[in-house]
Design goal:
heterodimer; A: 60s Ribosomal Protein L30, Chain: A; four-stranded mixed beta sheet; globular; B: mainly beta; Rossmann fold; six-stranded mixed beta sheet; 13% helix
Amino acid sequence: MKVRMFQWGLMLAAVLLFSGCSTFMKSDSDGSGDGASVSESGDASTSGASRGGSWQGNPLDNPDSPLYTKVIYFDFDISDIRQESIPTLRAHADYLLSNAGASITVEGHCDERGSREYNIGLGERRATAIKRFMEAEGVSSSQINTISYGEERPADPGHGEAAWAMNRRGILVY
Amino acid sequence: MKNFKSKLFNSCFVFLLLLLPVLSAAKPGLVIEITEGAEGALPIAVVPFKWTGSPAQQPQHNVGSIISNDLKRSGLFNPLEANKMLTRPSTGDEVDFRDWRTVAVENIVVGQVQPNGSGGYLVRFQLFDVYRGEQITGFSVPTTARHLRSTAHQIADIIYETLTGVSGAFNTRIAYVTSVNRGEKKNIALQIADADGYGPETIVESSEPIMSPAWSPDGKKLAYVSFENSKPSIFVQEVYTGRRVKVSSFKGINGAPAWSPDGRYLAMTLSKGGNPDIYVMNVNTRKLRQLTSHWGIDTEPAWSPDGKSIVFTSDRPGKPQIYRVAVTGGKAERLTFEGSYNARASYSPDGKNLVMVTRVNGHYRIGTLDLQNMRLNVLTNGSLDESPSFAPNGGMVIYATTTGGRAELSAVSFDGRVRQRLALQSGDVREPVWSPYTK
């Protein structure tokens, strides 16, 4: 569990770094959405593929793309989207805009505190907040489903602040 | 006596006999332990019941021990431990009241279990007032191996009611949700056990969440939420046949089912209108009526015992609080003003109190609200206490708690003086709901 938390932390840090550069975001989200290939494309004629390699697969699976981040976190008993999550959500919104056939289910989750059915309501509010953000970015509502799992599916089974922070989340499932 | 007979003969005998080998192998799944006892509990002695048949055919359970444990768990009685009894009488004639005055018990229960036909038993018991040296009550009850524990609980109910004037709730059951790791996945199950934790049976299981079990008023059905097929739906399942129907599967939330006292309606939370509101569904016709309409989260409805109003959780003031609305609709009235978090209220059987989750200094605890003077009384001292449910006699509240990182159940007497814990041998157990009296 610790390892996974560390990984999420790294990912979050990566997103924060990327988010500082909006032009990068834009260039990333049009076309293939492959940020790595932009810098590598000039070397295509030289011998040997570069070690970093341009990403050939689905941009959603590219660890270097902001699209790779599919989990965003929330504050306690709050469904407002944090400032730091906006670049990630914009990248996904752009992806959905340019891939009209793609659709997502947004899962809303809560930490374990408080009553379970109220948390189902809170989880839905979080999922809906993400959906509304995407719609404001121009994404068609038909591309976005929501479901709330409340506190029923914690990412971290612990019972302290660290676990709770990991569990208050929205997940974008393609 | 008539009561006993009708209960026993209502059951399908052949079916039960077929089940016997399976049941005799069943082990208690929930471990019950009394963690806080009450001072001033009534001293009583329940002598282990004597088996009059051949040793080889001795029943698996001692009726006297079951009764003694029931009375102890209620918090109102302090039964004498068997190893402190000077003698072990099994009939009134054998009781020497001086022995029992010496150990300062006020009442004594003695009894026998006799073989009665094939697979049957006859249980006799007598309750005495030690100081007067008089019998207060006594019955002779025919039963079967399958029903022996149930018979013991019924006797405990008689003793409890005779001595306290309040109906006992020992011959009832609890439903709860368990979650056990099975490899990468979780195995979530809705189980039912006797109120003393014995004989758990799974009635539905899934790798997806199961939530919010609710007993129908006749104790024969459970409504619950299941996320099977990756969406929440409300099901109603017959407890004894396993037959079930999906009653609600709208877009969005289908949650928090609550039966009306007459069993004809289910109140529930639906978000098909855009955000969670309370609806009332006629269970037979499936016709829906929207009861609340507010941009806030309205959820966790519960009916008043007279069926006239519904309490629910709403965060319309910013944080969740308890509101009450007439079943016919109209303006909702806020009931809780103390504390910044009050949720999941339900009524005591007499309708005079609500039990709910309340936040105290960042801790989530179980509290009761007296509806006459609107005073909030905090019953528990955990940090993550939730899902309170009254016993049908109003004497105890069962709830979910977390101890040492594990989710378990706890029961507390209504006055907060007696507490017991019910833990699963492995895994988590949560969302307990006490059954009504089974009719």
